[in-house]
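Entry 14. Structure prediction run on the chain below.
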Amino acid sequence: MPAPYIVKITGDVKVDDYVIIAGNKITFKEACSDVEWNSKTGLIVGTVEGVKRAVHFTGQSIHTLPVAEENNIEDNLTGGATFKIDYQFWYY
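Output returned:
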């Protein structure tokens, strides 16, 4: 079954940087750092000017990772940030 996931971005994210996961694109509309995106709740939180809060973005933040999805992850993180995806596949 498709499953929600959490993306953790470590480092600086610049305006118009993006992440694409399983065809779903999130584009950041403000500079931030140390971002966490929860695809189940749709909440994308990062540090902006020293304050941890929701960040401005475009795209669909509520999303699931299809079971058969492979190699469909792309990013344009120009500030040198790195990211990882944490998920558990659901079986019924």
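The mean pLDDT is 89.
Filed with the rest of this week's runs.
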